Amino acid sequence: MGKGLTSKRLTEPACTPAELPALDGIVLSHLHGDHWDRVARRSLDRSLPVVTTPAASRTLQSRQGFRRALGLRTWESHTLVRPDGATLEVTALPGQHAPGPLRRVLPPVMGSLLEFRSPAGETLRRVYLSGDTLPFDGIRRIREHIGEVDRAVLHLGGTTLPGGIVVTMDGRMGADVLETVAPRRATPIHVDDYDRFRSPLSAFTAEVERRGWAERVDYVERGGTISL
């Protein structure tokens, strides 16, 4: 996790890189082992564009051979174009992985707005990926800046470091961000993979039910698929 901090994987990914469908590109919120591990580094196609933070792009290019890694600063955008003319515009959004001085220890993180458009330019879907962020004032700015999205994908887990410092959203925080961003639908992920994840999915489920948001939330099982 950086600076000598470690975490043990409890569950394996639902599929290997070889089992993924053909990829047009990769959106990477930050360089942490639970998002970009040794298997990904070895197995993914190094010719693919990787849209990520400036810090991560420098490491991916100079040390790992991903020459098309592109770093976006907050509010910057990059568009991926398919041969049929369909596009995906990725906009980097504010994220804060840790409170206070600890931000100097953990890598910079970004949220992302994914805007899918048809070959004719029609906007089909707008999806917010939170990345590993905590609730902070930047989340409010996201809602003000991008407006309503079709779906928010929320990284939860309540990752807790020694001393009780939480660096990813727990169930209450996830519900706070859900209320702030106010998407049409939401899906929680990043909940039970590592031993430092201390907030179970049930904590988020209870919060959204208590606050009246349960009908807007869809859950996806490990290895399962939901339609956007």
UniProtKB/TrEMBL annotation:
Metallo-beta-lactamase domain sequence ranges: 9-190
Gene3D superfamilies: Ribonuclease Z/Hydroxyacylglutathione hydrolase-like
InterPro entries reported for this sequence: Metallo-B-lactamas, RibonucZ/Hydroxyglut_hydro, UPF0173_UPF0282_UlaG_hydrolase
Recorded superkingdom: Bacteria
Alphabetized Pfam families for the sequence: Lactamase_B_2
Full protein name: MBL fold metallo-hydrolase
